[in-house]
Amino acid sequence: MKNWKVGTRFAAGFGVVLLMMAIVAAMGIWRLQSVAEATNAMMQMPLAKERLISDWYSNISTSITRTTAIARSTDLSLAGYFETATSDAAKNAAALQAKVQRLLSTPEEQKLFADIDANRKAYHEAGDSILALRAEGKLFQAKNAFEKNYLPSAARYQASVDKLLRLQRQGIDGVAGSIDATYRSSRLVLLALSAAAVLFGIAAAIVLTRSLLRQLGGEPAYAVRVADRIAAGDLTETIRLADNDENSLMHAMKTMQGNLARSVDHIKQSAETIGTASKEISVGNLNLSSRTERQAGSLQETASVMQQLTSAVKKNAESALHANQLAASASQVAIAGGNAVNQMVGTMATINESSRKIVDIISVINGIAFQTNILALNAAVEAARAGEQGRGFAVVATEVRALAQRSAGAAKEIKSLIDDSVGKIVSGRTLVEEAGATIGQVVDSIRTLSDFVADISNASLEQSTGIEQVNQAI
Questions:
Q1: pTM reported for the whole predicted model
Q2: Do 159 and 39 belong together in one domain?
Q3: How far is residue 205's CA from residue 22's CA, in Å, rounded to a whole number?
């Protein structure tokens, strides 16, 4: 623990105290849970059964009182008057008996309930016999049956129910005693744990305080005052230490005070030595100043030459930039020319396709003229066969045939002209494609030239920047 940090010590001390308090709280919660479970068990079973049996007993007492009044009365109409109440009481008693029977759990309860059931049957038989005798008008016999049969059976019935009721109350008293015992033991355990936690907290506080005072070497306020004096530059303060104190903060501060005092003395000696050296350096600086003035004149001449070189390089860079712009413009013009040639190639291809379509149309016309000529020839033959009647038709057929022959001749001439045009278009398209390829090569060459000129321009700019930096440095 002596080598632990302060935070670790406090964390360990308070952690153990908190752990013990947590144990106390957990123990209290556990014991309270036990009490709650016992109370809940008492409320769910013994107390519920006790209340049901008590209601059942009250119901039986009321029924006995009502039957006694009927048996001892000479009014025959009294039984009819209490008939509804008697029936309801019997139903209520049966319902309570059924509920109690469902809650019974021990053999003793089962045995008592069997006695109750037997006594209940005898009780109801005696009561029914009294009502039957009164219904027949036999009041004397009914009174005798009441005294000899009903009252003893009713007493046995009530006594058996009372035994079961006392048994439930004994169970409730037992659970209550267990709860009280749990409470008393829990209180003792919690008091013991709480006392242990308090005692441990006091012991931890004493141990932590002593360990911190040993580590500090004195009170914290005294350590702060000494540290403030040292920080203010006062190294004459006498620091008081306890006997055999070699590892505390105050011992370290006393050691630091002595080291600082020795360091200050050494610094004073060094300052005197530095003063002497500074005087010697001042004399050397005077000599250096004269040499520096001469060197400055040489640097001015060098700067003038560098300025001239800078202006020449800038002019070269500007010329290279202008050449780059001209090359870029020429490249754009060449690209535009190449695009125009490509468009011309496309247009000539379209014209060539149209010429081929015209040739096809003329071929159709030539075929039509040939068919017309054959038809005219057939018409002339038929007109010759017709004799005098077909002479006029023969003249028309001759004219049609002549017209067809002229159409065929004209179509041949047009076809020959178009074939010639198509051949020239094909030749022209070949020349245009060659021109487009040549222009593409020119564009590539101009682009290469533009790249070279751009490289030259960039190099000139870099040279100009470098020379300016050299000029500024000079």
A1: 0.35
A2: yes
A3: 19
